[in-house]
Backbone:
């Protein structure tokens, strides 16, 4: 099982999302916890841009103000979500 935590310092640029996906694929990650996404809108389209295949789920917290934003994304063949909870600056 490979888990990564990464402070991305903004996911707004397509080139950064593409490079992040390449990093996930080349390292065979099973779960990624991403901080400082600075994303106003989180959706499945973003998840598909970040993950290497369709076997994923995600949970996230959108940005508040000019900083923050959290995403956890994982391989559903390795992890299963039973529940999630979030508040300002926290995602469980």
Residues:
């Amino acid at each position: 099982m490979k888990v990564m935590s990464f402070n991305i310092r903004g996911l707004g640029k397509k080139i950064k999302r593409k490079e992040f996906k390449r990093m996930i694929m080349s390292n065979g990650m099973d779960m990624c916890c991403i901080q400082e996404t600075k994303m106003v809108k989180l959706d499945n389209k973003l998840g598909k841009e970040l993950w290497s295949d369709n076997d994923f789920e995600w949970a996230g917290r959108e940005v508040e103000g000019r900083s923050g934003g959290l995403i956890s994304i994982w391989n559903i063949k390795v992890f299963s979500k039973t529940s999630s909870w979030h508040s300002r600056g926290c995602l469980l």
